[in-house]
Amino acid sequence: MLGITLALLSGATSGIAVVLVGRHSQESNAFNVSLLISFVGLVVIWPFAAMLTDFKGVNLAAILLFALGGALTPGLVRLFYYAGLKRLGASINSSIFSIYPLYSSLLAVLFLSELPSLENWIGIVTLVIGVIFMEMSLRRENGSNQSLRNWIFPILGGLTFGLGAILRKAALNIYDAPILGIAVAYSFSFLPYLAILASHAPTRSHVSFRKDLRLFWAAGVGQVISWVLSFYALSLQTVSVVTPLLSIEPLFVAIFGYFFLKGQEHLSLRLAACIVVMVLGVILVT
Hints:
With 286 residues, the protein is mainly alpha-helical. Helices cover 80% and strands 0% of the residues. The protein has 14 helices and no strands.
């Protein structure tokens, strides 16, 4: 029960952080926002990791899995996620991204010996229906501003997140140290950013934290708290339990976005129904 509660709290905290980013997403770019949020999380988590970890019992294999998972998520995931948020809006982006439990469940069949049930297949059909209806809703309500090609960002983010969930669970099975795992993951999440900065001069020229730190520091704190909650949830429960609960984030994004993103987010009853259908499908799948 504790793992389930922590997973739900993680989804809610992440939803609040996404809305905080959405309030100022047009004032910066996805790369700067992603890099800053990762940096804030790194600064917050390492002091706790240093105090709470018994480094004498560190397992190298688990550290390597935490590191690889961190390079994927929050590393690449955050780049994909905030690029989608900037183009699609918080509610829509989060809804498409929330299909990631489908990916993690399929990967769990291969690596964690979890077998799909009848409810899983019903959930897959439900997800497809939810995606189709959401696309129809977007085109009807928002016209050409919501191009289907922009969906690639939350879809790739979901795929990467799903793979990261498998790596995190495998690492925690070997070495149950959630705080250190988060610290290592956050540290190695900078690898994609460093590669981009080293190879792309225009990106380097636009990196500036003077204004962005003031706008997005709270979102960075919220995201690292969400990660702490999700890691502890994953250490107590299976991937198939935790990931669908985390994916309920779109409901929190929609609720908080409705109150705090007025003028930016237009949550119709049709779109809200699509979000609910997709989340229901995710729960059934996993």
